[in-house]
Amino acid sequence: xxxxxxxxxxxxxxxxxxxxxxxxxxxxxxxxxxxxxxxxxxxxxxxxxxxxxxxxxxxxxxxxxxxxxxxxxxxxxxxxxxxxxxxxxxxxxxxxxxxxxxxxxxxxxxxxxxxxxxxxxxxxxxxxxxxxxxxxxxxxxxxxxxxxxxxxxxxxxxxxxxxxxxxxxxxxxxxxxxxxxxxxxxxxxxxxxxxxxxxxxxxxxxxxxxxxxxxxxxxxxxxxxxxxxxxxxxxxxxxxxxxxxxxxxxxxxxxxxxxxxxxxxxxxxxxxxxxxxxx
Length: 279
Description:
Largest sheet: 5 strands, parallel
Helix content: 25-40%
Structural class: alpha/beta
CATH superfamily of the largest domain: Response regulator
CATH topology of the largest domain: Rossmann fold
Distance between the termini: 33 Å
Number of helices: 9
Strand order of the largest sheet: 2-1-3-4-5
Shape: globular
Radius of gyration: 19 Å
């Protein structure tokens, strides 16, 4: 049975959406309701729903910022069972947001939720879920299934743009990375970085000529750098789009990204494998 979480700071809106969902998707189980973005992230991590309905403008943490944090939660690559979730935004009419959503990057529901529009959203979400479920038992096919909306470059770029609209006072994107190189602090231009790889404590910054370390996890870098320049291919890996030379598979069927100017191959996690569908 598919499950969902509803996050909206207005109780009446949550109740109205719950009632509408019962009409258009009767088998959907609402496992939790959140009143702000922070609760939405915590409840998503706790309940692992298939779909998360997020109001764009919420206190503590906006729906957009919550979506960005949800996209960084461990999926079945690391957590052993949860394939991640579809994200649907709830919004009052916002021309910028609706235009972005109409491009098909992500689904949305206008307040108050109308039956026919919600029905269309549900059909799209179910279709994407069915595609991944269909390939679930076949490891090779699952690797080329459609990626989660939250894990696509287009989605990450959209979330950055929406975050800038909602929080116009946020600092500009990083142009340089300050890193430790052989006991010295060095400023590395972002465009020279081939990839970032994180472990538990440090993130490795790799250029064509050197390697450096920073104490900043990938989930923070996703917030601070321009995601039009980098693709996330793993929860712990960002790669410069211009540095991607090609994609191959190893004997276990895993996708590996070849990087221009460096011999190392970067593993693509299953959650992100659909990025290279058809390659």
